[in-house]
Each structure stands twice: as C-alpha cells, then as structure tokens.
Fold each of these.
Amino acid sequence: MKYIVAIIQPDKLDEVLTKLEEKEIHLVTVTSVMGRGRQKGISEVYRSHKEAGSLLKKVKLEIAVNDDFVKPTIDAITSGARTGHVGDGKIFILDLPECIRIRTGEKGNPAIG
C-alpha cells in the first residue's frame, strides 16, 4: 500500500480528477494549500493571473492506493497536471503500513477499496 501526495496547480485539478476517474481511482482527498518551490514564490503571471507574495496557491491531493494502482495513479496525475512550465508541482510516494476502514474494521488492502 502507498500513500500518494501530489501538489499541483489549482486550474489543473479538474483535468487530474478526470484522468484519475479514467484509471478507476475514485478515493481522493483534495485540500487548498499555499506554498513555494523552486520559483521561491516570485511573482509571475500564470495563465493571465498574477501571483504575488512569497506563497503561491496550490492544490494538494492525497490518495491511498494498493500497489497495483501506484503507476496508474502517477500516470494520471502527471498527464493531467503537466504544462511543461515551472510550478507544475510534485508527487510524493510514501509507504502506507496500515489502513483501517472505520465502519467495518477492515484492515490492510481491503480497507483501501
């Protein structure tokens, strides 16, 4: 089991969610976040919207998947979020030692779904 965290541009969210649905990955948590990366929060015009300040608006996706779904998840995120410009985002893949479904008490792979 893996826990995948992706930080992407907000305007790419719908496209990434569509790509995930196409790969039958439905369980996603989405959070609006702020941060900075290599561009260090430098003000720039991004798709006719000027971003200012040291922190830029981003979207964080959190997805728990069984091992068979790691590659399809990464492929969906990268194909949906990539523009080829600085600030496209990052994907982090973490080991997930345990998952428990609260409603049934299921543990491990079956709990993810």
Note: DSSP finds three helices and six strands in the chain.
Amino acid sequence: MKYIDKKLTIENTKIQNIAYKFGTPVYCYSFSQLKQNIINFKRSFQSFSPIICFSIKSNSNLNLLREIGKLGLGADVVSMGELMLAVKAGIKPKKIVFSGVGKTSNEISYAIDRKILLINAESISEIKEIERIAKSKKRKVKIGIRLNPNTDANTLNQISTGKKDDKFGVNKKSFIKVIEYCKDSKNLELECLSVHIGSQILDYRPYEKMLKVVDNIIKKIDFKFKYIDLGGGMGIPYNKNSKKLNYTKYNSIIKKFLKKNKSKIIFEPGRSIIGNAGILISKVIYIKNSERKCFIILDAGMNDLMRPALYGANHRILPSIKNSKMSKKIYEFVGPICESTDKFSTLTKFQELKEKDFIAICDTGAYGMSLSSNYNIRPKVTELLIKKSKIKVIRKRQKYKDLI
C-alpha cells in the first residue's frame, strides 16, 4: 500500500474507488505482496530448502489457497474441513500435514484415505486411534509426534503453544514412551518430530531454545527422524515501532542443528505469508464526541475483525485520503457491535475525519476473515484479490436471506 497524490492505494488501485464500487466493509488482498512474501520466505531458508506448508487457519479463502499452491506451498491443516479445502485448492496430498489436539475418528480416517504427508499426533490416545483405524484399513500410516518443549515464545498467553501448561503436544517423558510404542507397531510409520511454540514471534531466541530441547531429546532416544516440523509462528510488525524477526539468525541456528541431525525441515507459516497482504476497508458511519475522546464509529465490527477484541491486538489505521488537519481530540475507532470490546484502536494523533470518510485497517490478511462471524446477524463481507490493478471478487458478501 502507498499514497499516490494523497490517496491511499493498494497495487495502484485507490481504496476510495474500491469502497464505492464494492461497498464496505470489504477485505482486499494484494497478490504482489503475497507473492513477494513467499519469495522472501523461501530465500531466507534456501540453504536447506524446507517443505513449506501454509497454515490454512490463518486464511481459508479458496482462491487465495489456489494462488498459494501455484507458488509452490503445501498446507498445514487442523480440521477435516481445512483438509478438504486444501485438496479442492489443488494442493498435493504429499505436501499436507494434519495437526491439532482433537482429531476425531472421522477426520483421521479421511486423512488416511487422502494419503497425506503426515498426521502429527499430540497424545498417546490419538496415536492408538490412528493405529486402530490404520489396522482396519490394512494400511501403514506415516505420522509425526508433537513434542511440547516447555519453551516460552515470549508472545501473548492466548497464542502460546509450547509451555508445559499448554494443551499441545506431549512432554519429554511421554515422548520417549511414545517412540517405543511406535517402534513396535505394524501400522504406524513414525517419520517426524513436530514442535510449535506459539504465534506472532518476533525474537529468534525462543526458536533457539526450542531447537536445543529438540536436539537434546533426539540424542537421548537415538532415533532418526525423516522430518523435523518446526511449525510456524513467525510474526510481522503490526506498527512502526515493532521489531522484525531476524530470519538470518534463525536460518543459522537451523543450519547448525542440521549438521548434527540430518532431517528435512517442515515449516507451517501463516501470518508471515498472508498477514501484511490484506487490509479491511471500512466507512465512518458516525462521529460521536464525549468529554475525553471522540468515537469514530465504523461499519466494520469485531465480527469482521476479531483480533483486537480477542487478543488486544492493535492494527494500524490509515485514512483513504490524506489531509493536513490534525484532530485535537483522542480518536477511538469502534464498531457497531453491542459489546464494549468492539473497538480497534485508540489514537492520540490522527488527522481529522468526517462522517462517510473511508479508512483502511492494515495487516488483516491473517486471522481477519478466518476468525469472522455472523454475530449480531451480520453478513460476512466481500473479499477481493487485487492483481496488477485487476480486481477479482474471491468471496461474495453474504445476503441476509442466507442468514435468516
């Protein structure tokens, strides 16, 4: 995104024109940004050429998944629905990994039938269920085991997944027992050690600690894994003051690890691929003054973008047209939902806005539309893909008659 003649654009298309033509709220994605993110990610780790499985939970738009698949990525799925979507998007089963703590028997059976790369199991009970289903199908199933490394990712508690009190994976003691169980099974082929410590990580050091734990446990069990799945979690800067994850140092740490452990690396990035490729365009419905601040009431609500209400996340907000008049009051950007948490940002410095102006909420490509809902019986919004100034509707706005 950039300003051209004081007008905000995405791939040289004016935000204001998009809003007028397609209505608001509306999600827009930049194809060139998405493509560049994938190129940059591949370059960062080109010395060992990992298998890159896009995390579908971050954005599940079928058209975007097709583009991501064409650019060479596989898929990380956490439900049968996501697996079905990945297959429909044309992603090859041998580039799909199935994660998650609560896979049902139906989901496991479906994954086995699709012959995907790996089912990453997270408990001994799940492993026994995979074995039972595999035996009934007279199949040998390739699995991974997710280790809980008890590593603090130094991120939000709500998106931490690698500490001992988190529900994900098995601890070191249980991990060793699971290895022995799998060795004796005729229907399980253990190929992968999986680990994932959290999301929105901006410091390489938690990854360094995680890899030390993985290295130590591999030494103890004396078992060679074909794959080491390092998950995802790579963060993006949501504001100007945020630091960026040092991919060069993370790459060096992994290369050092691979000198001792000859395995193929799997990554499961989501946010780092799609996060900054998306924006949410919204219209100012009303401006309401109070004693301390000024409420900028938008037509987008927490049902459209849940992250601020769910995590306290803060997204940059930009006006569609720049002006030089600064507001003398604090601006609080809020939505129309009947909840006090339906607010996006409180800013002490922002240009003056008028009712019916348009704004863009930035970096909403990940966990924006995928977390949206019909709360307050509000239709889900239109999604657009902007590709070389061509606009393609990749999801139509829901209609009230479809909801009621």
Note: The radius of gyration is 23 Å.
Amino acid sequence: MRIHSFLVNCHRWKKKITPKMKKLTLLFVLAFILLACDKDDGITPVCNTVTNVSSISVTSNSAIITWNEFDASATYNLEFGVSGFTLGNGTTVSESGSSAQLNGLQPNTVYDVYIQTECSSNNLSAYTDVHSFTTSSPPVIPEFRNNLSELNLFSSNLNELNITSLAFEYNLNTTLFSDYASKQRIIALPEGASMTYDGDGLPVFPNNTVIAKTFYYNVNDRDLDLGKQIIETRVLIKLNGNWESGNYTWNDSQTDAILDLDGSVLPVSWIDNDGVTQSVNYKIPSNNDCFTCHQSFDELKPIGPKLRNMNFDINGSNQLQQFINNNQLSGIANPSSIGALPNWEDDTFSLEERARAYLAVNCASCHIPGGQCENESTLDFAYETLLENSDIVERKESIRFRVSDYNDGISMPFIGTSILHTEGVQLINDYLDTL
C-alpha cells in the first residue's frame, strides 16, 4: 500500500512541474556544478614518488644517490641503513635537489636507501622501492703502521682473515716448514698494477706492493669450526725499489696485531689430525732474523712467491693462469713455458725431485749464491743447480748431522723452527742414502 501511494504521488508531482520550474531546476544544477568545480581547484595535487634511483661515486665510506625529480620545489627525504634495516630506524637526510651524498659509511657493506618526496608538510609521497649498493674496500696502506688493521689487508673482523678485495691469496706447491703452523699468504698490488714475468723465479713487483704471511694453529685440526690461534703476520713492502720488512704479533684477544720488531717466544698447543695434543715454543722472529733469511746479495727480497713454486693447479685451475686472467701477472700469456717446482709430498715425483724441492724451499734462501751462508758453506741448494755443482754429495754426512737432531744454534734451519720436521728429515735422509 505504501509503495503504491508513493508512486501515485510522484506521478501527480510530475504533472504539476511547469516549464518555469524546469528552467529553475536547470539553473540550480548548473550553479552546483560551477561551485563544485571551484572547490576542485583547491584539492591538493598528488605528490609523486621519484624514479630512476641510482648510486654513483661509491667509495669505502661514502656514496652519491641520484634520482629523477618531478617538482623542483619539493624536498626529498632519504632514509638509509645497513641492508635489511626497518624503515623508521635508519639515518635520514633531506635534499632539495636531485642528489644526496651519504657519508660515514662502513667499508665492504651493503646499504639500503628509500626516498620519499615531500611536497608540503602534510603531503608526502609513498617511499620508493629499496635501492641497494655496496661500499668498496678501503685502499691497502703500504706503510708499517702500529696496528695491522691500519694496513687494510683484511675486511670485517680481523681474526676472520677475510682478504680485502684489493688483494689476493697465493699458494705454494712446496712450503717452508714452520713448526707445523698453518699459513695464509696474500699479495696486494697497487691499483691498476701487476706482477711482471721475469723467468721462473720471482716476478718483478711494482712499488707499493704488500706481501703478507699470517701464521696460525687450528685449535683442533680435525674440527676447524673450533677456530684458530693466530700468532703473527709477517709483512714485506716494496718502497722506492727496495723491500722493507716488519712483523705483527697478534694480541691475546685476537682482535689486532701490533708491530713488533724484537721477536719473542710463545707456547702453543693444538690437536693434530691424529687426535694427539702437540705443543711447541713458537719463535716469533725479530726483524734482524727476517733479513737473515730474506737477504740476497745484501738486499732484502721475498722468498716464497717464485713463479715455479706457484705453477700448479688449484681446484682444477692453474694458479698462474688465474693471475694472468685477472691481470695480476703480465708479460706472459700462459704458464706453459714456466718451470714447476715439485710438491715434496707428492710421491708421483722421484725421491730426488721431492728432496731437492724440499731443500730448495727450506734451505736455499741461505745456502745459495748471494745468501746468508754463501761465505760459510759451499752448498748450493737451488733446485735448478745440477747435483754435481751443488756439493750435496760431498757434504751429505754434514747435512745429515745438521738436520737429524734439534740442537739450538747447531741444527738446520738455523732459525725459524724449534722442533724437527719429522717427515722432512725422513725425506732428506732417504735421499742422502741414495747418493
């Protein structure tokens, strides 16, 4: 009934609408539209989010962030922090242009950046999607500063021995015996420079090259997750054509190493691969000791990184070829013409090859023309020296005596060890027995 009555009344009202009323109604509608349009002119425009966010001029502690702006009168609020931070907890900066410089950043770190446009205090855009960038490594410092950390050879926590991206690790086929210590060997070349091929021996290193060798013992050789005790880091730096040496002794907390030119003795214990606890009184050399072994014709020189001792495969790839591919070694296209020092532990080589390689690495730094013992001994342990010219046969019993027992000041090597290398002594004696 009510619906029917409503429809009847609407029909009656429709009949009563006159042309004049229709005209008035139309004018009312037009006025309403004009007023509504006038109010639309006062609506706050949309504050647009910037586009094309990028990072340029990224260094170890700074970066410039750029973007495309829509409104030259707007302010742009940047919030940044270590990757993964939550918005509202980062560092903020505001800029009126289309770029901002971020300072005080940490090296080797991934950062996230978000940008919001502020058209007015109550008109803000949405944040951009995250933009990420990674700061670079700080430059390696070719100076003997008080703390090892100041040289920038490692990134993050120093005791993790993570090598800076500006240096690289090298390995030797036959290594020097140092009381069973493990070693990490690295080379840092100046930016854009390389080692230069100069035969099978040492390459030519550019000035400001830094070579570092870190000595450590695993707490347990069978479980590397238990960590290690780092003892020392020996450093050579080439400055103005000459090599200089310095030694860094690690502190008890393993947070840094201090330049120490005097040397010391440190008791060390570890569990070997057989589960046996071993102990040594490890001798950290003085700077004079370093010169004793590293001198050649009264000049200080590296011993280990000879090309012939680095010419072997690691994980299926030749180490020297990798150096060439990475522009770290120049002057040669491939290592095929470079000799290779045998691995003394590889019994696919002859006994003589293995023993001569061991003697070359462990003894020839002194017993070689130009070495420390040139005027005290006729022995020449260089691997390339022919047996008949080495005096090994003539002096074999003297060699046997000097290596077969440990007597401080008598046994060989004269410095650098405090115990016998059982396996090395056996190799030498087996070889001498054939002569």
Note: Residues 2-40 form one domain.
Amino acid sequence: MSPSDEQHWGQTRTLMFIMMGLWAFFSFFIHMFVTSLNSIVIAGFPLGFYMAAQGSLIAFVVMLFWFARAQDKIDRDHGVAEDE
C-alpha cells in the first residue's frame, strides 16, 4: 500500500469508528435514561418517549447523510471518488 492509500484507509477507519460511537450512543445510551427523561414533557409527550420513538430515527438519518458526505470528501481528497 502506498502512503496515500494508508492515509485514505486511516481516515476512513476513523470516520467509521466515530459513526459507530454515535450509533451506539443514540441506540443504547439515550435509551438507558428513558424513564428518567420521561419526567420532562415536550408538546405533550414525555421526552424519553420522544427520544426513543423519533429522536433516534432523526439522528440516524442525519448521521447517514453526514457519513456519505464525509466519506465522499475523503475519497475526493485521495483521488478515489467514484465519479473521477
């Protein structure tokens, strides 16, 4: 592997670990506190319910688009983008 390839995969690996950490946070960590978050009410719904039912899904969609954009930037910086 050339140094550029190693740098590309290093940045890709770092991005993947960040995304996995965020995924774990929104999948498990937030949901551990659902009962304590239920004491906070927003728009008639307990915050724990909202975070479990809607908040995590919104976070996952935002993460998906952010990941695609960040990976595309990494690929373009190293000359391995699909449309090049």
Note: The radius of gyration is 18 Å.
